Amino acid sequence: MVIEIATFTLNPGVTPEQFRPFDLAVEEEHVSQQPGFVSREAGVNEDGQWVAIVHWRSVEDAEASMSSFASAPATAAFMSHLQADTMVMTRYQKQ
Predict the structure, then answer these.
(1) pLDDT-based confidence at 70, cuts 50/70/90?
(2) Is 25 exposed, middle or buried (0-12, 13-18, 19+ CB in 10 A)?
(3) Domain range spanning residue 82?
């Protein structure tokens, strides 16, 4: 099992309420449809930093999902609402 954690900040002026539909679309239309997907959750803290936590069956599944992420239709709107240079993604092996 792999735990993938991504953190990022929204573009100035974009509220969590405005962003949530795009986050949900990425989850429902892309991430959850990928082989090896187990679960995903997302949230925002009081400073406006977002976190998305995705569980995958394997590193290969996580990597395959990232390879297709940029070209997935739902991701364009998602990415246009956040500051790409603030995105940090880390993977962990579940013990």
Answers:
(1) confident
(2) middle
(3) 2-93
